[in-house]
Amino acid sequence: MSEKLPTLPELRQQIDAIDVQIHELINQRARCAQTVAEVKKAEDPTITSFYRPEREAQVLQMVMQRNQGPLAGETVAKLFREIMSACLALESPLKIAFLGPNGTFTHAAALKHFGHAAITRPMATIDEVFREVEAGSAHYGVVPVENSSEGVVNHTLDCFINSGLKIIGEVELRIHHNLLVAEGTQLKNISRVYSHQQSLAQCRKWLDAHFPKIERIAVSSNAEAARLVKGEWHSAAIAGETAAELYGLKKLHENIEDNPSNTTRFLIIGTESTPPSGDDKTSIIVAAHNEAGALYRILEPFYRNGLSLTRIETRPSQSDIWSYVFFIDFEGHQQQPQVKLVLDELHDRVRELKNLGSYPKAVI
Ligand SMILES: O=C(O)C(=O)C[C@]1(C(=O)O)C=C[C@@H](O)C=C1
């Protein structure tokens, strides 16, 4: 005989009792964070940011490790992400500049990394994001750096060549596109679709198969596409979840991208160095000597000291014609002995070395 299931009112009573406990514990945690702020202020009366990227990464790593389900580790980590964001806002809210406008994937990346309690401000260009942080008008900035199908965002790399800012974190975002329309728009009336040209390209096969005849119009961003269709009953936009929410649009089709593993990586930029979290990366820029074997001499110390490279990019140096700089990301933190050793050796082997900082690997 099967066991009798509890009734719906009984289950809801259980849920109410559990919610009371969760609620009390969240506020207990928030009071703790308030005291943390007092301790930090006592240690440094001039403190402007209470954010601790390495500690947040550790909290999220612990959540993922101890999770037993039925909720997925990433789902629970996202809940803790928001709890920490709210706790930090009690200490002092963070101001975050990102490559706008509101509703872009960079906006989604900023919210994924800092949670919804952060104050996010859209900037018109990547340079402006750097300038806001350099001027102290924003605590941190968020900029795109590479996409799994489109490649590197050259402008972001070039900004690092001339800036004194550090990389303090990274975010990875699966890029999911949706076909969005305003409330009341009917499928049969759609005659045009707006999106950023990259997104139109990323959904080309899907559009060819489902809407071969509608006009495809490239605009400055997906968020701009979403804004436009808000007032047009014969148009659709291709954009992400954040833009759909922002402009109150209806999703006619979800996940219409041709490559479902399409991912963009974003960098968090700031002014301070980040202590080790236990699972970190370091990014450097090196200008090689113009001689045979120059790249080999740069890479050899990494191999000898067992440090894995996660990325290497070449960009024209902005000072000399026909000379190049390498952007190198590798595993490890600059406070680790092998990393220090490799950085010391590299100094003697290259024309210039700029350390962009060590930061926790993306956890969620
Ligand atoms: O541990 C700290 O330093 C805190 O300020 C607490 C806390 C948290 O809520 O866990 C909040 C903000 C920081 O960015 C890191 C962690």
UniProtKB/TrEMBL annotation:
**Reactions that this protein is recorded to catalyse:** chorismate = prephenate; prephenate + H(+) = 3-phenylpyruvate + CO2 + H2O
Q: Per the database record, which ranges form the Prephenate dehydratase domain?
A: 95-271
Q: What's its job? A: Catalyzes the Claisen rearrangement of chorismate to prephenate and the decarboxylation/dehydration of prephenate to phenylpyruvate.
**Which InterPro entries does the entry mention?**
ACT-like_dom_sf, ACT_dom, Chor_mutase/pphenate_deHydtase, Chorismate_II_sf, CM_dom_sf, CM_II_prokaryot, G/b/e-P-prot_chorismate_mutase, Preph_deHydtase
GO BP terms, alphabetized? chorismate metabolic process; L-phenylalanine biosynthetic process
Identify the residues that the record assigns to the ACT domain, covering every copy.
Answer: 283-360
Q: Which Gene3D superfamilies match?
A: 3.30.70.260, Chorismate mutase (1.20.59.10), Periplasmic binding protein-like II (3.40.190.10)
Site positions per UniProt: Essential for prephenate dehydratase activity: 264
Q: Which organism is it from?
A: Fluviicoccus keumensis
Could you tell me which pathway this protein works in?
Metabolic intermediate biosynthesis; prephenate biosynthesis; prephenate from chorismate: step 1/1; Amino-acid biosynthesis; L-phenylalanine biosynthesis; phenylpyruvate from prephenate: step 1/1
Name of this protein: Bifunctional chorismate mutase/prephenate dehydratase
Q: What subcellular locations does the record give?
A: Cytoplasm
Q: Which UniProt keywords apply?
A: Amino-acid biosynthesis, Aromatic amino acid biosynthesis, Cytoplasm, Isomerase, Lyase, Multifunctional enzyme, Phenylalanine biosynthesis
